[in-house]
Amino acid sequence: MEYKKLNLIYFSATNTTKSTVESIAQGMGIVNIVKYDITKGQNEEITFSEEDIVIFGLPVYSGRVPAISVDSLNKFTGNNTPAIIVCVYGNRDYDDALLELRDIVIANGFSIVSAGAFIGQHSIFPQVGWSRPDKDDTEKTIDFGKRCIKLLENISDITIIPKIEVKGHFPYKIPKPVPLTPKGNRKCDACGKCVRNCPTHAIDIDTPRKTDKSLCIACARCIYVCPQKARDFRGIIYKLASRKFVKANAQRKEPEIILVN
Predict the structure, then answer these.
(1) What is the pTM of this model?
(2) Which of 38, 84, 174, 185 could, after both became Cys, cross-link 42 (CB 3.0–4.6 A)?
């Protein structure tokens, strides 16, 4: 079947998940691409047809999809629309995130033809997965896209494909709260960019060096967008946690892909 449009739906605090789904799209070679960045939410309800393809890309936070992304994901409805699901994790584990994403996407009327778990630089402990996705990752992601479009072109009836099986457990793991939050230092010039870009509104315009711990999800978006490089994770607790985490997750993980039979 010939598909007319490729839709990219992603939550990407530091643009790593965005770059991953864009690499998949590059491999698929479809010219007509529409992007939906749900990092700060999605208000409009969108319905797709069988002539669309949708790639869903989400980062992994504590082994789950970001809780604040679920409402946005539910704004998108398929009509037996072929979908590719992708999670991006920081070289530790993706636990139940891909399974959770699969269940959400299927419940919303999509038919999943392939799934992938890819690695990016860890948002809290950037020494883990440093500079990933790297060249090798990108080549594998592009190749995944090529395999996906070839598979789709050979499916005559999307309604009869089997339910894709991915790693994970149900009930999903209960995510632990992250006790680490980024904050600003003297370099902060109160430009407000972190305030405008924080997905959870955890930074107040009057006190931009501070972070509301009750709202922060440690996505590191404020660090990524800060033009003065004023924001970061700091403190003795962070240093101790970082040392332990880096040691435990130093071994390089490789992407995992699943295609329906």
Answers:
(1) 0.97
(2) 38
Q: Pairing mode, if any, of strands 110-119 and 256-259?
A: antiparallel
Query: Tokens 């409805």 appear where?
Result: 77
How many residues in total does the chain contain?
A: 261
CB 248 within 8 A of CB 135: no
User: Domains in the chain, please, with CATH?
Assistant: 5-171+254-259 (3.40.50.360), 183-232 (3.30.70.20)
Alpha-carbon distance of 202 to 109, in angstroms, equals 33
Q: What is the largest CA-CA distance in the chain?
A: 60
CB 256 within 8 A of CB 117: yes
Spatial separation of the C-alpha atoms in residues 256 and 29, rounded to whole Å: 21
**Nearest by Cα to 55 from 94, 100, 23:** 23
> Is the peptide bond preceding residue 171 cis, with omega within 30 degrees of 0?
yes
207 CB-near residues (< 8 Å, 6+ apart): none
